[in-house]
Structure formats: C-alpha cells, structure tokens
Amino acid sequence: MTGDQKPNPPQRPEGADAGWSAVGYLLGGMIVWGGIGWTVDHWLNLPHVGLLVGLIGGGAAGVYLIVKRLGA
Questions:
Q1: pTM as predicted
Q2: Structure confidence by residue, pLDDT tens digits, 40-69
Q3: All structural domains of the chain with their residue ranges
Q4: Cα–Cα distance between 57 and 45 in angstroms, integer?
Q5: 3: DSSP letter
C-alpha cells in the first residue's frame, strides 16, 4: 500500500550544487532582509540604518542556513 512507504529524507547537495545553494542562501538572506530594512528606513525616514542592519542580519542568517543545511 502507498501508506506503508516511508518518505525519503532530503539529500544534501554535493559539488557545484552545494556551492550554488550556499550562494543562493547568502544572497537571498541579504536581499530579503536588506529590502525589509530599506522599507523600514523609508517608513521611519532614517538615513539607511535599517538597510545596513538588514544586510548584516540577512548575511548572518544566510551563513547560519549554510552551516545548518550544508555542514557536516
């Protein structure tokens, strides 16, 4: 029966796939959180403080995801 099958665990990318995944996590975090920081800057009329915090926080979150999902 189909209900008796166990789902396959997610596999870790290897080689170039792992590198592109790492780049995607890092850039994705910086773009998303930098965009949120930029939006907060315009909303509160700040001089690019939120953008800087968002870029640094997004980069840190990207590194965290790289280590968590691609690390040994």
A1: 0.75
A2: 999 999 999 999 999 999 999 999 999 998
A3: 18-70
A4: 20
A5: G
